[in-house]
Design goal:
Helix content is 11%, strand content 39%. The protein is mostly beta strands and 171 residues long.
Length: 171
């Protein structure tokens, strides 16, 4: 087990009005603090999903854990082979190497604070996703940057089944 020694000396303060917003409804991402701001400790963003919208497809991080805290609403979260429905105030932490995904629960909205630690620069990853959604780059371009962002896509029959049926995820 290695210890991450963050290298920053000032508090990180991000005012809501100053956060960069990527995307548009039904999927909006507020970029809060990237790894460079936290000396490598973490990167964090707030994802707002409306009307059952998808968040991230199944993937894993080889070197980082990912924390999901439900600020409001309800979300489906894949953790390994398990799909859970999390509601306001619930917390799910996925360790490195474990497949995970997230989406608003069917017909629901979800407001999720996400923390990835240790951090690597990920804001450009979210900007890349926005370019894909606007048709500026092809979706398969993500496969070329998986290693750069420590985000490796995977298949998940459990996730596919949960997202294809309304409200079938376990709690």
């Amino acid at each position: 087990m290695s210890l991450i020694a963050p290298d920053f000396t000032e508090s990180v303060i991000v005012r809501a009005a100053d956060a960069e917003v990527v995307g548009r409804a039904p999927t909006t991402i507020r970029l809060l603090a990237d790894s460079s701001a936290t000396g490598g400790a973490l990167s964090t963003q707030r994802v707002t999903l409306t009307g059952g919208a998808d968040g991230a497809q199944p993937h894993h991080h080889a070197n980082s854990a990912e924390l999901f805290y439900l600020l409001d609403g309800a979300a489906q979260l894949l953790s390994g082979d398990q799909v859970v429905t999390a509601e306001r105030g619930d917390l799910v932490i996925v360790p490195p190497g474990l497949a995970h995904a997230f989406a608003a629960a069917p017909g629901e909205d979800a407001d999720i604070l996400i923390v990835i630690t240790p951090g690597i620069e990920r804001f450009e990853y979210f900007r890349h996703l926005e370019r894909i959604s606007y048709g500026k780059v092809p979706p398969q371009s993500l496969l070329e940057v998986q290693e750069l962002y420590d985000t490796y896509f995977r298949s998940s029959p459990a996730w596919d089944a949960a997202r294809s049926t309304s409200g079938s995820a376990g709690r």
